[in-house]
Amino acid sequence: MNTEPKSESWWDDADFQDHLVALLLQDPITLKSCGALLNPNDFKPIRGMRNGRARWIVAERALEHYEKYHEPLGKLTRSDVIEYATRLNLGANQISELRDYIRFLTTKIRVSAPDALVEKVIRYKSQRLKASAIQELVDLQASGQLTDEKWHEIYQKALVGTSSGTKTTDYFETLEDRLERRRTENVRSRVPWTFIDPLDSMVRTIGPQQLGLILAPYKRGKSLMLLWLAAAYILQRLNVLYVTLEDTRVVCEDRLDSIITHVPLKSLSEYPKTVRRRFNRYKNMIKTRLKIFDGTEGGITVARIEQVLLAERDRGFVANALIVDYDEEIVPVRHYKERRFELDETYRLLRQLAARYNLVTWTAAQTQRDTRHLKILSGDRVAEDIGKIKKVTCAISMGKGEWTDDSIYLWIAAHKCDSMDIGCEIVPDLKRMLIYDREATRKAMKANSVEE
């Protein structure tokens, strides 16, 4: 028997509101489009509505977080909401209800065609704002209180409310928001770990809206480094879109299978049961997804990458990280006499893409010829154009290590937000496609008297 409450408005439909809240938690495009139009009371439940109180609280936290920090609440949802519920002194049953609802949103709701839902929200809220403004004008006119100044004020309020993409921030009035942002960043940092212990102990690499660069000579392991980052981010609840422009999808999938299962690449076909068992264990452990786009046929521009990103969003996959392997294969929008101008435009577009969609974004570039023997690869060793170093938040080069024949020296060639011109050595396991072998690296550090 259907016990859902009846409402005259489609807005009060629980399924509709669930899908909208799911978007508000993870989709920066939805927040930019209609975040300023919404307020928590839009989700105030009517009597008997399923998950009413939980939805109201989660929506409130999502909107407040975006207003303060201009980004989705995302993977911080559970900790933020539970902390908020604790501050409100909610009971154990209510906190349990919140946990169940967050789990429902993150595991059961997959929003397809989000733009259609967003358009519906904007149209509805705009109509409500205009109707409210008209009613206020009528009431003031009837009471004889409608002045020219009041007319202009109401007009501006309705106009700004329907123009959500033009909101600015008052710098001198938002210090407390910045202090709170820094406090929460210290407690639960926005920058994901690389799971390369020596690197993570030196610096935090890049976070949302930032562009990172891996530099290396040919055949040093740029692609393996990017695949390692993809696997690390998945474990940290980030949805990853991996764009391969050099190696085919089959090659990337085989390498990832080897990374995840720790079965040597050449032995994947010999041990299908082991691969299946270890892969399924890994799959059951994670809550996010990895999508691979094969662009090896060529002709891939940054605009095309954005189309892929939006197409996946329409299918319910909202990416948190974008990895592009590698920059040389990205086709410039326009051709210039000098290659460096093309690269300048490509990196600028990638950086803008990262900012627009709140993405942790990595790509890779090759260093100059005759650099394979060098331990420290500084920024001026970039092939074609040193300018690309200036456009990224963090650049990590992969020089030749000294501990083993295939060890790698990671050097922070550039960093806008942390230390640079420092490095560490790691040992890979190339048979298993691991750019970082934790045990082998620890043994090499001990043998070379390096403190962990």
Describe the 3D structure.
This protein has 452 residues and is an alpha/beta fold. It folds into three domains: 104 residues, no CATH class; 57 residues; 251 residues, P-loop containing nucleotide triphosphate hydrolases (Rossmann fold, 3-Layer(aba) Sandwich). It is 47% helix and 11% strand. It has 16 helices and eight strands. An eight-stranded mixed beta sheet has the order 3-2-4-5-1-6-7-8, with helices on both faces. A hairpin with a 7-residue loop joins β6 and β7. The longest helix is centred in the first third of the chain and has 29 residues. It is globular and about 85 Å long. It starts with 13 loop residues before the first helix and ends in a 5-residue tail after the last helix. The N terminus is likely disordered.
Brief characterization of the structure:
The chain is an alpha/beta fold and 452 residues long. The protein has helices at 14-26, 28-34, 52-69, 77-87, 92-108, 114-142, 148-161, 175-187, 197-202, 222-235, 249-261, 272-285, 302-314, 339-356, 387-390, 438-447, and strands at residues 210-216, 240-244, 290-294, 321-325, 360-366, 394-400, 408-415, 423-426. The protein has 3 domains: 10-113, no CATH class; 115-171; 197-447, Rossmann fold (3-Layer(aba) Sandwich).
Question: What topology does this entry show?
Answer:
Elements: H1 14-26, H2 28-34, H3 52-69, H4 77-87, H5 92-108, H6 114-142, H7 148-161, H8 175-187, H9 197-202, E1 210-216, H10 222-235, E2 240-244, H11 249-261, H12 272-285, E3 290-294, H13 302-314, E4 321-325, H14 339-356, E5 360-366, H15 387-390, E6 394-400, E7 408-415, E8 423-426, H16 438-447
Parallel strand pairs: 1-5, 1-6, 2-3, 2-4, 4-5
Antiparallel strand pairs: 6-7, 7-8
